[in-house]
Amino acid sequence: MDQEAIESFRAQARLYKHIFNYVSSMSLKCAVQLGIPDAIHNHGEPITLSELVSALGIDPTKASFTYRLMRVLVHAGFFSTTKVNKGEEKEAYVLTPFSKILVKEKINCLSPFVVGMLCPAMMMPWQFLSDWMQGTKKSPFETANGKPFWDYMDHDPVFKALFHDAMRSDSQMMNLVVKDCEQVFEGLNSLVDVGGSTGTIARVISEAYPQLKCTVFDLPHVVANLPTTGNLNFVGGDLFQHIPSADAILMKLVLHAFGDEECIKILKKCREAIPTQGEKGKVIIIDIVINVEKDEHELTEAKLFFDMLMMVEVSGRERTEQDWQKLFMA
Ligand SMILES: C[S@@+](CC[C@H](N)C(=O)[O-])C[C@H]1O[C@@H](n2cnc3c(N)ncnc32)[C@H](O)[C@@H]1O
């Protein structure tokens, strides 16, 4: 084979890998839906294929398919294999750092994020991205699902539950850091978590700082029927209209879901909601910052994927430090 042919075949393999990248994410979703990370974790030791099939309640006639699913997931690094001796030497599966954060009993379990982000309503809009680029007025999400993202959620209870469960699991990760952020919360008497979903992060904060009165502010259909507990309460409303007053406003992964003009409007509403004199009066933003120079390649890739996700689903964007500065100075 000449050099050009070798290069073409290599390029073909790489291209096919990218074309079929969804196989990796959809196989992962399948593993989560089957409960594979939990089954391996609960087994307490490396689990063989037949033990896994039995633990999952899968019909033994499907064992060879389970083997193929596990093979691609091991190849992707979600699980790994080791040898065990059960009369004869066999291959057995173990969790890797990737799948350890998919185990349900772990506080930082991201399984709901896998299922929510890969549900049909989130996947279908990608089919309409090029149409939108070429001039279709409606966003890809609206073309695919009939309504803009936040309106659609009010009309599809299954999607709403999947999405907010995904957000809940992402916010649970904050458990790992909130207690170390005393300097952020000290001196504050009240805090409003704007776009706070069903209150996971506000609950973490309210438990870590019991003196702080925490309010979760989100769309009325999101917070309807969520009960006040201790120093945590819920208020429904529209962040473009009015944000309840507090010493501090928190927004986690809210501004990235909106374009620059909308963000400026939201930040102005935040300004109106906080005191303008003294120590208090701050807006705490937890969001993505693209930093191609500083971040590892994989982290940048994840952030750029989020950027595309925001474009396709909600007309938002991820921002560099300079982009954020421009917003704050506007
Ligand atoms: C990407 S989610 C982030 C949720 C949460 N902060 C978290 O990180 O888990 C954005 C949130 O903003 C809320 N939201 C969107 N538009 C809103 C509006 N106009 N007024 C109030 N909340 C809104 C959504 O319901 C959703 O809970």
UniProtKB/TrEMBL annotation:
PROSITE patterns: SAM_OMT_II (PS51683). The keyword Transferase applies. It comes from the Eukaryota. One of its GO terms (biological process) is isoflavonoid biosynthetic process. GO terms for molecular function: O-methyltransferase activity; protein dimerization activity; S-adenosylmethionine-dependent methyltransferase activity. Residues 126-328 form the O-methyltransferase C-terminal domain. The active site is at 256 (proton acceptor). Gene3D superfamilies: Vaccinia Virus protein VP39 (3.40.50.150), Winged helix-like DNA-binding domain superfamily/Winged helix DNA-binding domain (1.10.10.10). Pfam families: Dimerisation, Methyltransf_2. Keywords: Methyltransferase, S-adenosyl-L-methionine, Transferase. Residues 17-104 form the O-methyltransferase dimerisation domain. This is Uncharacterized protein.
